[in-house]
Amino acid sequence: MDALDVLKAKYLDEIAAAADEASLEEIRLAALGKKGEISLKMRELGQMTPEERQTTGAALNRLKDEIDAALRARKTALADAALDARLATEWLDVTLPGRPRPRGTIHPVSQVMEEVTAIFADMGFAVAEGPQVESDWYNFDALNIAPEHPARQEHDTFFMHRDAEDPRPPHVLRTHTSPVQIRAMQKQGAPIRVIAPGRVYRMDMDQTHAPMFHQVEGLAIGKDISMANLKWVLEEFCRAFFEVENVELRFRASHFPFTEPSAEVDIRCSWEGGQLKIGEGDSWMEILGSGMVHPKVLESAGVDPTEWQGFAFGMGIDRLAMLKYGIPDLRAFFESDLRWLRHYGFAALDMPTVFGGLSR
Amino acid sequence: MKFTLSWLKDHLDTEASLDEITEALTDLGLEVEEVVNPGAKLAPFTLARVVHAEQHPDADKLRVCRVETDEGEKQIVCGAPNARAGITVVLCKPGDYVPGIDVTLGVGKIRGVESHGMMASERELELSDEHNGIIELPSGHVGQKFVDWLAENRPEAVDPMIHIKITPNRPDALGVRGIARDLAARGLGRLKPLAIEPVPGGFESPIKVQIDPALKEKGCPIFAGRLIRGVTNGPSPDWLQQRLRAIGLRPISALVDITNFFTFDLNRPLHVFDAAKVKGNLRIHPAKGGEELLALDGKTYALRDGMMLISDDEQPESLAGIMGGELSGCSDTTVDVFLESAYWDPITIAATGRALKINSDARYRFERGVDPEFTLPGLELATQMVLDLCGGEASDVVVDGVVPANTRAYRLDPARVISLVGMDIPEAEQRATLAALGFALNGDMATPPSWRPDVLGEADLVEEVARIASLTKLVGKPLARETVGVPGPILTPMQMREKAARRTLAALGYNECVTYSFIDGASAALFGGGQDATRIDNPISSEMTHMRPDLLPGLLQAAARNQARGFADFALFEVGPAFTGGEPGDQHLQAAGLLVGHAAPRDPYGSRRPVDVFDAKADAEAVLAAIGAPAKVQVNRKAAGWWHPGRSGVMALGPKALAVFGEVHPRVLREMGVKGPAVAFTIWPENVPFPKAKMPTRPALALSDLQAVDRDFAFVVDAGVEALTAVNAAAGADKVLIESVRVFDQFTGEKAEAQMGAGKKSIALTVRLQPRDKTLTDAEIEAVSAKIVEKVTKATGGTLRG
C-alpha cells in the first residue's frame, strides 16, 4: 500500500465515521481544503519530473474525486437519516375528518326542470315564460274557458285582491302554465315550439296536493303538426326522461277547453314490490294532459287557425320528479326540511344534458 | 256517474264483456274510476248437493255430510242446523278464499273427522247478513257455477257497478242512455230505441204554471208539469230500489225514486210537489232577495236577488233546478202529485248553486246542460212510470215557454280531421260516427243533437270522430326539428343567469329551497310587502295571504323550522320570483341566500366561527361574478329596513342595486323566530347589465417579465373611515404602475385605541407595483410610495402608522 492508499483509507474511514455535517466539513477541509493534506500534495507536483507528475498527478486527482464523492454520499446519507428521524416523529391521526366543507344541493324541481329543458331543447323547443299573477283573460278566456264554464270553477283558483273602485275582474294566480301559450304566440306568432316550465297555484291542500306546484307546458304550432306528432314527441320525451329503452304511451280521449281533440296520456308501468318501473308491466299511469290546440285559442293569440295547427300538453314537474326519483310526498317539496333537501337534492355540478345523460 | 251493467243493457243491446265495456269507456273519454263486481269474489264457488248427513260422533251440533260435487263425492263437516240430505248448496273447496270470513280454506279435521271444504251461508259470501243456516238453492245442478246461477236467478247480486268520471263537456253522459250511445257508436252493441208514448190527460190541471217574463229571456225558457191525482206513494218496487242502491242512492218513496231514476237514466231531472200543499198556481220568478226556503236537505236557505224560485200563491216552494222545498215535498200520504219538468239556464243554476253551496244531482246536471228538447218527452215518460208504479190519473200537461232554439251546423272537413289527428280515418267512417252520435248530416254540414250543448265548432266534430275512432290506435309520427344541423342555444341570457346563480350557490354549499310564493301578511310586512295589492282574496290559510315581496322571509321561516328540528349551522338559498304588486308585470327574479349559525361545525382544527357579513358578501360576489356582473361595483349603505343598519351594504352600479348583503336585522330575526347569527344576501339578476355586444374574444393578455414589487402601508384613521376610501385613494396614486391594492389587515377596538388614540383604527394595505418596461429603481418606488401615502392620508384624514 503506497502513501496515497493510506491517505485514502484514512479519509474514507473518517468519512464513514462522521456523525454529522460539521464533522464532514472538518474532514473536507483537512483533506481538500486550501491547506488540506491532499491539496498540499497537489502543490508538490510542480517540483516533480514530467513523468512523475503525470502518474502522481493522475493518482492524486483520482483520490481527490473519490474523497469528494464519498463526502457527498455521506452528506446525503446523513440528510436522509436526519429526515427519516424527523418524519418518524411526525405522526398524525389521518383518520380525523377533513376540514368541513358544506355540500350544497339543487332542489329536485330545479333539476327536473333542467332535465325537461334539455330534452325538449334537443327537439327544437325554446323556453318561454310568463307572469304568475295573471289576468283572468290569459288564464281562462283566451284558453276558451268562458266565465261560466264549469272548468273555471274546477280550477280552484286563487284570486288577487281588487280595489272596489277598480272595475276590472280580479287577477288570478295562474292555475296552469297554459297562459304562457297565449303570451308566447302573441310575441312570436307561428310557427312556434316552446315549453314553459313554472309555478302554478290551486286552492288545494291535502296528502297529495299543495297550493303551489310546478308544471311544464309544451306548444308546437306549424302547418301540419298532428296528434300523431304529439304522441311521438311525448314518447321520445318519456324515453329520454325516464332513461329507459322503451316506453309505451296510451292516449285516452278526454276534455280540456283549450285543446280539441284532447287526450289524457297514460304510460305503461309496473308497480311490482311497490317499485315503479316505466315501460314494463300491465299497469297504466296517467302522466299528462294534451291535445290539439283549440282554434279559439289560436285566435285569441292572434294566430290564424285556418293556416296553422299544432299541439299542446301540460305535465306536473313535481310529479315527474316524484316518479323518477321515488319521492313520496308532494308537500315535502316546499317544506325546506334540510334532511329532505340533502337526501333528494342534486350536486351542483350534476348538470343534466342529453349528450352526457340526465342523471348519474 | 254511477250505473250498473244491467242498467246499461236496458239501453244497449250488447254481447260485450264487462272488461270490453270498461276499456271502451275509458278510451272514449268516459274514464272508469271504479268497477265493483260482486261476482268476482264468488267466481270459484260451485253448486253441490248433500247426499247424506249424519251426526258427528264427537259433537252435538256438527253433522258429517257426504256431498256430491263436480269433483266427485266429498266429506264435509257442517255446523248449520239446516244441513241435511237432498238440499242444493253452495260449495267452497279447499284453496278457495271465502270473503265473508276472510279465510282461504284448507282440508280440515274437525273433532277428528276430515272435512273437504265448506257449504256457505249468505253472510259468508257477503250476499246478505243471513247466517241462520247454509244457503239452500231452489234450483241449479251440481257443478254449476254459483255466479251463473245468481245471474239467472238473482241478477242484482252479481250486477257490476261502474263508476265513471265525466268531463264537464259531456252532460249527455250523465244519463245511462248517453253512455250507451257512445258505446254503440264505438261498435259495442246497438242503442235500443226509446219509445215515447204521450200519456193523454184526463182532466185539466188545477195547478197552472207561469214563467216571469224576466226569466223567459234567460233562466227558464220552458216549464212544464201536470197533476197526477189519486196516486199511492209507498216504497218503490224492488228493481228500482236495487238500481238506486247499486249507485249509492237511498230509496225514499216511489215518487221520489222515479225522479231520481230519470235523473240517472236519461239525464232528465224532475221534481214532484205534493199538490195538496201547493196553494194556487206555480210561478217561476227571480227572488227579490231576503226570502227563505226550507229545502229538502232540511236546511233553510236565505235567497239572494236574482236566484230562480218556484213559488205558489203564498210562498217559495222550490229552488228552481237545484232543490225542492220541504213544505211541498211528497210523502207517503201524498195523493195528488204535481210533476215538474223544466229546462234551466246552466249559468244561472251554477251561480245560485255556488252561492248557496248546494251540490245536488239536479244542479250538477242543469249547470252542465240537460237536453232541452227532452223536457216534454221526459215528462211523458215519467208520467207513465208514476201511473205504472203508483196508479192515479194524469191531467193535461201545463206548459209555459218554449224549448230554446239552438240549432247550429258545422262543416265536417274529412281531410282536416286526418291532418289534425294524424290517423287515416276514412270519410265514410267519420260520417257514420257522427250519425251514430245523433248528429244530422246534410252534405258536409253536421248538426249536433240537442243533448250535445258542448259541440260548438268544427274542432268539436274532429274530437268526436277521433275519440270514437280510438286515440289508443294513434301511432307516433316523428316531428323533425325546424332546422337541420347543430341547433343554436335555446335559453335566453336571463334563463342562463338564473341557472348560473342556482348552480353557483349550490357549489358554494347552500341547499336550494323552493318555498311558497305566498306568505303571511305580517312576514310580508317585515320585508316591505303586505299591501292590499299583493293580497290574495281567498287564501288557503292565514300563513299564505300575501305574495312574497322578497325571498328572505320564506328562507327565514325555513330556517326557523330547521332550527326547531335541531339544525344549528346551515346555508339555504332560493332562486325564484318576488312580487312588488298585484299586476302581471309586478314580478321579478331574485336569488337569495341565508347563512345561519356558524360557518363550519365544530372540528379538531378550530374552523368553527360564527357566520358574518363578509361570508354573505363573498357569496353574493361569487354569484354576481357567475352571472356576469362587472368586477367593480359600488358599495353603499342604503340597505332596506330589514337589514342591520350598520352591518349591511348594497352593491350597485349607479342607481341600480345588483345585490344587498348583511346581517338580518335582529328585530326581524326575533319576530320570525330565528336564532342568530344570520347573514344573508339578495341578488337581483335582472339589474345586472348585459354586455352591449356578445363577444367571445377576450382582451389580449399583457404579461410583464419584470418582477412585481409589493409594498405594505398601515394608516391610522378615524374608526368610521371605510376601507374602500383608502383602497381607491391608493389605487389612484399611479394608475399605470399600481396593479392592485388589497386590504390585508385592520386593527380596531380597545387595544387599537390604546395605541393610536380614542376613535382610531388602523388599516393595512398591500400595494402591488407592476413595472411595464424597466425594473423600478428604489427612488421610483419611494416616489410612488410617497404619492400613495399622500393620497390616502388626504382622502381619509389619517396618517401613516409609524
Q: Can you characterise this structure?
A:
The complex is a heterodimer of chains A (360) and B (802). Chain A has two domains: 3-89; 107-347, Bira Bifunctional Protein, Domain 2 (BirA Bifunctional Protein, domain 2). Chain A is 41% helix and 19% strand. Chain A has twelve helices and ten strands. In chain A, strands 1, 4, 5, 6, 7, 8, 9 and 10 form an eight-stranded mixed sheet that branches. In chain A, a hairpin with a 6-residue loop joins strand 7 and strand 8. The mean pLDDT of chain A is 92. In chain B, the strands form twelve sheets. A seven-stranded mixed sheet of chain B has the order 30-33-34-38-37-36-35, with helices on both faces. In chain B, strands 6-5-4-7-12 form a five-stranded antiparallel sheet, with no helix packed on it. The termini of chain B are far apart. Classes of the chains: A alpha+beta (360), B alpha+beta (802).
Provide the fold topology.
The complex is a heterodimer of chains A (360) and B (802).
Chain A: H1 3-17, H2 21-32, H3 37-43, H4 50-89, H5 108-122, E1 126-127, E2 133-134, H6 136-139, H7 150-154, E3 172-173, H8 179-188, E4 192-201, E5 212-222, H9 227-242, E6 249-256, E7 259-270, E8 277-278, E9 283-293, H10 295-300, E10 309-316, H11 317-325, H12 338-344
Parallel strand pairs in A: 1-4
Antiparallel strand pairs in A: 2-3, 4-5, 5-10, 6-7, 7-8, 7-9, 9-10
Chain B: E1 2-4, H1 5-11, E2 12-13, H2 18-28, E3 31-36, E4 46-56, E5 59-69, E6 72-78, E7 88-92, E8 97-98, E9 103-104, E10 108-110, E11 113-115, E12 118-119, H3 146-153, E13 161-165, H4 176-186, E14 190-191, E15 209-211, H5 213-217, E16 222-229, H6 238-246, H7 254-266, E17 271-274, E18 282-286, E19 292-294, E20 300-302, E21 308-311, E22 316-319, E23 323-324, E24 337-343, H8 346-356, H9 361-368, H10 375-390, E25 393-394, E26 398-401, E27 410-411, H11 414-421, H12 427-436, E28 440-442, E29 445-447, H13 458-469, H14 493-507, E30 511-512, E31 518-519, H15 521-526, E32 546-547, H16 552-564, E33 570-579, E34 587-596, H17 613-626, E35 634-636, E36 643-653, E37 656-664, H18 666-671, E38 678-683, E39 709-718, H19 723-731, E40 738-747, H20 750-756, E41 760-769, H21 778-796, E42 799-800
Parallel strand pairs in B: 15-18, 30-33
Antiparallel strand pairs in B: 1-13, 2-14, 3-13, 4-5, 4-7, 5-6, 7-12, 8-9, 10-11, 16-24, 16-25, 16-26, 17-24, 18-21, 19-20, 21-22, 22-23, 27-29, 28-29, 31-32, 33-34, 34-38, 35-36, 36-37, 37-38, 39-41, 39-42, 40-41
Helix pairs in contact in B: 1-4, 2-4, 4-12, 6-7, 7-10, 8-9, 11-13, 12-13, 14-17, 19-21
